[in-house]
Every structure is written in structure tokens, then in C-alpha cells.
Amino acid sequence: MKPGPRRSISQADIVDAAFEILEEKGFAAVSVRGVAAALGLTPTALYTYFESKSALQAAMVEQLLAGVADAGTIGPADEVSDQDASAGTWRDRVLALAVALRERLVAHAGAVVLITSGPLDGARARDLEEALIACFAEAGLDSDDAARAGRAVRAHVVGAVALETARRAAPEQMPEPATLWREPSRHPLVEASAHLALDGDAAADSLRWGVERLIDGVVPAR
Amino acid sequence: MKPGPRRSISQADIVDAAFEILEEKGFAAVSVRGVAAALGLTPTALYTYFESKSALQAAMVEQLLAGVADAGTIGPADEVSDQDASAGTWRDRVLALAVALRERLVAHAGAVVLITSGPLDGARARDLEEALIACFAEAGLDSDDAARAGRAVRAHVVGAVALETARRAAPEQMPEPATLWREPSRHPLVEASAHLALDGDAAADSLRWGVERLIDGVVPAR
DNA sequence: ACCTGAACACCGTTCAAGT
DNA sequence: ACCTGAACACCGTTCAAGT
Fold first, then answer.
1. Where are the alpha helices (DSSP H) in A178-199?
2. Which of the residue ranges A174-183, B19-28, B82-91 would you say has the lowest mean pLDDT?
3. Mean pLDDT of the region B47-76
4. Which residues in chain B have Cβ-Cβ distances shorter than 8 Å to A146?
5. Which residues, in sequence order, are CB contacts of B202 under 8 Å at separation 6+?
6. Choice between A67 and B196, residue whose per-residue pLDDT is larger
7. Residues of A in Cβ contact (< 8 Å) with B102
8. Rg (CA), chain B
9. What is the DSSP secondary-structure string of A53-93?
10. Does pTM surpass 0.85?
11. Nucleotides, chain D, CB distance < 7 Å
């Protein structure tokens, strides 16, 4: 185990190791030193493959987004299974893209922080944006509105998943002090809707609902 | 300058100092040690006021959100200045809340990362959510849909600002290598819409557009 | 209660050196 | 080219001790 040219490892291996740590211990635990150790390397060795930690993170984002844009080009019957198995209208494809993006983000704990902390202008991010804009262009929007709509869908998904996962990652909440008399709440509406955000399925439904409403607002002709 | 009870400082002072660092040097630079130094204290002294760094960050989120919910209760004529100065319909109030939230998030660089890295379930976050749901309830939606709509607006704003500020914080992009023959782009639609995301005003307009479309989709009756 | 100083177990990154 | 080892300037947090 002496130093020397070994090339035993690739950029992809490093990204994989980083994702493993991300999934197991969260975003904060993804350190250059930790990833290197997981690969049996010294931290400085990683700087041969990536110029900095943020370059590594950019590569992670690219891998995370890989294939999401394809969810809109293949038939959406697999992703949007509760629809008619009919052809991929632009509406179905927008939904499929949104759902696919959400699934990628939810799959790894801490992926949203990862995606939020960088510019999101890599090749696969552009693929996704291109696919979304194409859908809205097909729907008849002019190029500016189609771009705005694509941006809006992307923002919607990112924001929804950010709020969803932040809630899930909440630390142990201190139990309410046992009180005999309930004070009237300052947030009755919020509490009445608490049942909507419990599990991941409800969150997925909420996202679909939001994107569908957004589409309805963008292309009102039904 | 000997140790001893001094109480020369309050929780608010610490939060203020933290915001100053956030604004000047970004989210990553907000450290317990740095904040303490800015106040002329030892890092450990801060643990008398806040149980942990994340407790400090939660307090920062609360201060950031303070007053945002009020943007929907006061007349929106100030925030939504290009509308008729007429009364606050629920629609105007939703827009005013969204714009106010965006302004708070954009005001401090790194505020989105701050808000994304925590649960966002403090008192002021609930105030905002409550105000949004109330608007949609007034619009005639049942309580579940009103909650979904409120959630959607919040997600939309957070996501839009996240994408907006991430783009702005991008490091120096390497200049395209000078080429004489342009290769056909893989993302023509994305590039054709680049003019939409240049400055902050355009971003603000994009957000308003998106929220308006979302509202249109949620309450189609116009 | 409020604060210090020392300490523990970490970080990202650079640099000189080895093969 | 790929890797190590030492080093620099940082982290969050804990603990014993001072007033």
C-alpha cells in the first residue's frame, strides 16, 4: 500500500461513496475526509479527481438528476400509473417529470440541501428544464411563458420537497406539557390540516395536486 | 474583563450578529465561534443563550419570518403597488404574502439555505401558513384544499427563491472557449429564455407570475 | 447565571515529497 | 498521474473552573 499511480478508482466511485454517506448519515456528514476514508484513501488523494468539495457536490447533483428528463419522453404510463395508459400528452409529461424529480430528491436524505446549495445549471439540470419548456411550448404557450412555466414547475417541486424533508428531518420534538385545559390555538387552520402531511404518500399526492393546479393556471383551456 | 455574570447581551443581540455575518460572508461563515468573536465573547459563552447552533439558526429563521404574515392583513396596496389601490381581496393578500416572503428571503444572502436546513415549524412560520390558508378558505375552498393551496404557495416561493439565489451565488463561470463554429445547442429553449433570469426584478416578476398562475389553477372561477 | 480556557474530535485545503 | 503525511486555519461541543 505504498503511494504511486494506482488509478484503482474513478470519479463515479467517489460519487457513489459520497451518496452512501449522504444516505446513511445526512448531508452534513458528507465530508472530503469521510468519503476518502470510505474508499481507503487519504483526503488529499480526492483532489486528484475533484478540484474541490463543491465540484464533488456538483457531480453528485448531476448523478442525482440523471434520467429525470427521460421521464417525460418515454411513455408516462409507468410513472403516472393511475391515469389512463393512453398516450403521453404534454400534461402527462409535465406531471411525470415533476414526479420523477421529486422521487429522486426524496430517495436520498439530504438531497434537497445538496441541490439547494449549488447553482443547478449542470447538463442534466438543463435537460430537465429543456424538457419542461418543450411541454409547455407544445401546449401552445409563447416561448417566454413556456420558460416561465417550466421554471415554475421546477421551483414548485424543489420547494415542496424542501419543506417536506425539512419537516421529516426534524429532531425529537419536546412533548407538549400535559395540560388539563386546552388553550385556544393561534393556528387552528394549520392544525386542522396536520393530517395532510404525515407520510410520504400524502406528500407525493400534495405535490401532484400543486403541479396540476399550476398547470391548470398556466393553460386554462381544458 | 474578567468572567462573571454580566448579562451584557441578549438572545436578540446574538441573532443580529449572526445575520450580519450571514449577509457579509454567506451561510457557511455563520459559525458559533465567529458570532461569539463578533460579540467579543468566547464560543462557549453562547451556549448559555442557545442550546446548540441549530437552536440559533431556528431563532434566525423566526426573526427572518417576523412580520411576513402581516403583509396579508394590512392593506396590500403598499406591497402590490401596480394593482388598483383597492381593497384587499383574498387574491391580493396571497400575492402580498408571497412577495413579502420572497423579499425577506432575498434580503439576506444565504437565507434560503438557512430556511431549507431546518423544519420551518416555528411560530412565525405557522403564522404565515395560517394566513395563507385563511385566504384560500375565504375563496371558498374546503379546508383540505385550502391547506394544500397554502402549502403550495409556500413551497412555490421557497423553491423559486432557492433556484434564484443559487444561480446568483454561482462561482466565476469559466468563459466559453472561443470557437469559430457554433455547435448546435442541446438546450435551445433554455438558452432562448436566458434573458428572463438576469436581474432580481425579473426574478420577482417570475415569482409573481408563477403564484398568480397557481392561484388561477386553484380557484378557476374568475 | 454568565463567562473563560483547555480540550476533543472533527473540518477543507495546500504543499512538499514519494512512486 | 496518483498518492501519502504533515501542516494550516478552521469547526461544534463539552467540561471544569472562576465570579
1. 188-192
2. A174-183
3. 89
4. 189, 193
5. B196
6. A67
7. none
8. 21
9. HHHHHHHHHHHHHTTTGGGGTS-TTTTSTTS-S----HHHH
10. yes
11. 1-7, 10-19
Task: Report CA torsion sign: B186, A16, A97, B151.
Answer: negative
**Alpha-helix residue ranges (DSSP H) falling in B89-180:** 90-107, 111-116, 123-138, 143-168
Cell digits for B39?
A: 460579540
Contact residues, chain B, for A163 at CB < 8 Å: 120, 151, 154-155, 158
Whole-angstrom distance, CA of residue B135 vs CA of residue B72? 9
Say how far apart CA B197 and CA B208 lie, in whole Å. 14
Q: Return d(Cα B150, Cα B207) in angstroms, integer.
A: 15
**Residue-level pLDDT at B194:** 83
| Contacts (Cβ under 8 Å, ≥6 apart) of A144 | B193, B196
Reported as a pLDDT band with limits 50, 70 and 90, residue B86 is very low
| Whether the Cβ atoms of residue B131 and residue B73 lie closer than 8 Å to each other | yes
Q: Which nucleotide is nearest to B55 (CA to C1')?
A: D12
Burial per residue of B94-112, b for 16 or more beta-carbon CB atoms within 10 angstroms, e otherwise: bbbbbbbbbebbbebbbbb
Task: Please provide the distance, in angstroms rounded to a whole number, between the alpha carbons at the two ends of chain A.
Answer: 67
DSSP letter for B172, please: P
Is any atom of strand D within 7 angstroms of residue A44's beta carbon?
yes
Give B43 CA → D15 C1' in Å: 14
How confident is the model over A54-69, as a mean pLDDT? 95
CB contact under 8 A, B189 and A117: no
For residues B80 and B92, the answer to whether their CB atoms sit within 8 Å is: yes
Gyration radius (Cα) of chain A, Å: 21
Grid cell 466559453 — which residue? Answer: B176
DSSP B25-56: H-GGG--HHHHHHHTT--HHHHTTT-SSHHHH
Nearest residue of chain B to residue A137 (CA atoms): B189
Q: A190 and B214 in contact by Cβ < 8 A?
A: no
Looking at residue A143, its pLDDT comes to 95
Helices A143-168 and A200-218 cross at an angle (nearest 10°) of 160
Q: Which residue in B57, B108, B103, B112 sits closest to B80, CA to CA?
A: B103
Report which secondary-structure segment, H or E, holds B62: helix B53-65
